[in-house]
Write a structure and sequence with these properties.
Elements (H helix, E strand, L loop, with lengths): L1 H14 L2 H8 L3 E6 L2 E6 L2 H23 L5 E5 L9 H5 L13 E2 L2 E2 L1 E2 L15 H11 L8 E5 L6 H15 L5 E5 H13 L3 H9 L4 E5 L8 H16 L3 E6 L11 H9 L1 E4 L5 H14 L6 H10 L4 H17 L6 H17 L2 H11 L4 H4 L6 H17 L4 H7 L4 H17 L1 H16 L3
Helix pairs in contact: 1-2, 1-3, 5-6, 7-8, 11-12, 11-13, 12-14, 13-14, 15-17, 17-19, 18-19, 19-20
Length: 450
């Protein structure tokens, strides 16, 4: 029967795309015959689920044609407790520490992984199929040709979800691997601190020798930070040579990121680049359905389809619409109905149309007791620089204007806008005062009090 399975695989290889075959079918192997049923081994539970959902009928058809009779088969998951790429890595393996249930996962360095950002919770559509497959391939260590993956999309499309899903998958399937998840902003701050305290060698060793999988988010925020870029480029060379895996995320292609050193740009472009487009209607419906189920919300398919029809920008807007419907239903003690959904959609649509860069500039200037002329001036006084950065950040979040347009409206280059957005996001994480100020401005914008 093993020969039968190999013949089935040969037929499937001709019918499926090369990517789909090598990702899903090729790793499946014959195990045994159990009570007349063929048992096939999958590499992990997620692969088993994916194959059963998408290829079970095709496999059944090919088996029946090949054997001339009904052939029963089932999938099982074979054990794969560790994935060490090199003898040195195998020698350094440490005892596995069991994780605590129902908690965000702490990787070996950097930030926590969000508990719900897993492959199982990601809704795959035509807009993200390749990015999903590539992410799972890297997480499963099946892509031997390349060491780096760059997930590229606009904000709110799911690149952070996929990058963290890779981390979850690696920690689950290969618990001895050392996974580092960190933002480009935090990476830069860590390097600056290492220079300041004379611990650069320790910093280099941490990433070059103590890390198997590096997940580096928002790589575009390294724009203009030459010293960080130089060190990162050298570090990537060492990691690639050692067979380590690096996952990047970015809102822009490497060629579109300003003030990037040729060395780092070259290394980013040498990896696999996968973009994520806005989801189509059917995918938006499935996203809403999954999120409603996760929240145990009783929302009819008619309302989900309506929200999917009206809210087309990104996944975050879909979440905002669903949250708005559920919140209004709870506060008003009313069942979720179409009138409620229409009201929420109108508010979101009205809010988007009303918010412009000029409106945001006036609001920020008023709140910080400045004039709009001062806000867009060349002044480098901190009393003006910080409000200006916040205004740029809010313009990026609340309008569809590209970076170049935002920069022009503030008499700046688009690289300055990238830096400003990163500076505000970093300040919000570290400074309670800035966080409260930005949240207050956000609430006024969303409430229409501008």
């Amino acid at each position: 029967m093993e020969a039968v399975w190999e013949q089935v695989k040969a037929k499937l290889k001709k019918k499926l795309s090369s990517q789909a075959y090598h990702l899903w079918i090729d790793p499946v192997c014959f195990d045994r015959i159990d009570n007349g049923r063929m048992v096939l081994n999958c590499v992990n539970s997620f692969s088993k689920k994916r194959i059963h959902e998408n290829y079970h009928d095709l496999i059944t058809s090919e088996m029946d044609q090949l054997t001339g009779q009904r052939c029963e088969f089932s999938f099982e998951v074979k054990s794969s407790p560790t994935r060490s790429r090199t003898p040195a890595a195998r020698r350094k393996q440490k005892p596995v520490q069991l994780g605590l249930p129902n908690m965000n996962v702490q990787v070996h360095s950097g930030r926590y992984l969000r508990r719900d950002f897993t492959f199982d919770q990601f809704v795959v559509g035509g807009n993200s199929d390749f990015a999903f497959s590539a992410s799972l391939s890297f997480a499963s260590c099946k892509n031997k040709q390349q060491n780096a993956l760059l997930l590229m999309s606009k904000t709110g499309m799911g690149k952070s979800h996929l990058s963290q899903a890779i981390g979850h998958h690696v920690l689950s399937e290969f618990p001895n691997d050392r996974v580092y998840y960190i933002t480009a902003e935090d990476f830069t701050n860590e390097l600056v601190s290492a220079f300041r305290h004379g611990s650069v060698d320790r910093f280099k060793s941490k990433y070059r020798n103590g890390c198997d999988v590096l997940i580096l988010e928002d790589i575009h925020y390294l724009s203009g930070r030459n010293r960080t870029q130089i060190e990162l480029a050298h570090m990537l060379d060492t990691m690639y040579e050692s067979g380590k895996t690096v996952i990047f995320s970015s809102c822009y292609l490497p060629g579109d990121i300003p003030k990037l050193t040729p060395e780092l740009r070259s290394r980013l472009q040498s990896g696999l680049i996968s973009d994520i487009e806005p989801p189509d209607f059917n995918t938006r419906v499935r996203i809403l359905k999954k999120k409603a189920k996760a929240r145990r919300a009783g929302v009819s398919m008619d309302i989900l389809r309506y929200l999917a029809t009206e809210l087309t920008e990104d996944v975050r807007q879909l979440e905002s619409g669903l949250t708005g419907v559920m919140t209004r239903s709870s506060l008003m003690s009313e069942p979720v109905n179409m009138a409620l959904a229409e009201n929420v959609v109108k508010i979101i649509g009205r809010r988007r149309k009303k918010i412009t860069i000029d409106v945001i500039k006036k609001l920020v200037a008023r709140e910080y007791d400045l004039t709009v002329a001062e806000l867009v001036s060349k002044s480098r006084r901190q009393q003006i620089v910080k409000p200006r950065q916040i205004a740029m950040y809010l313009s990026r979040v609340h309008t569809d204007s590209p970076l170049q347009t935002i920069g022009q409206r503030f008499n700046r280059y688009h690289a300055t806008v990238i830096h400003a957005v990163g500076a505000v996001e970093n300040a919000m994480r570290k400074e309670t005062t800035i966080k409260r100020q930005v949240e207050m401005l956000n609430k006024k914008i969303e409430a229409g009090n501008v």
